[in-house]
Description:
Arc Repressor Mutant, subunit A; elongated; 2 domains; mainly alpha
Amino acid sequence: MAPRRRWTPTNGEPMPATAEKLLRAARRIVLKKGYSALSTAAVGEEANEHGSLIYYYFGSKAGLVAALVDSLVEEPDLIGRARVSAVRDARHRLDELLKEQEAVAAAREDFRLFYELLPLILRNKVLRERIATEYASARAYDWQVLASAAGFTDEQTRTLGVLTLSFVDGLGLHAALDPKGLDVHDAYEVWRDMVTVYLRELKARAAAAES
């Protein structure tokens, strides 16, 4: 069997059922035993499939790990952006963005898996650059939504875009560490108020500067 091109959320192909089984099996292994327990043999056994299929669908174990990282970062971001972009009103679009980010922060299992893989991501140049590119794209998108809601483009709205994404990761980590003691929704209600008030203040300053 000739190796297939590695599946990613953006390559235009739906994930084949067997590839999805392998990816879900890899996810379960990392969550239960950590990255050190991840091997092609272990994934094949967990998925009840032949381990060599990893090379067919993902090219290598590294390709499987990259697809796992994509499923945690890139895929949810693409889905969230589609939902946000479908909202026409700028202020409602901002509400939808914050709602999508709240859902991401509340996905405790995903964050457990992401932080389990984070040391590997930081050491691996290819993965690190992939995630850095995805984060830069997410920050730019958040800034566009914020600037649209504010009614003007400003460097401070760009900085706020950085903070909104940082809030997701920080809150997601806290929720993963303390799943019973942290209410993500209440935290996001406060954050939503803070963002709204801040954008209103920026708009007032801009109006005062023009008068």
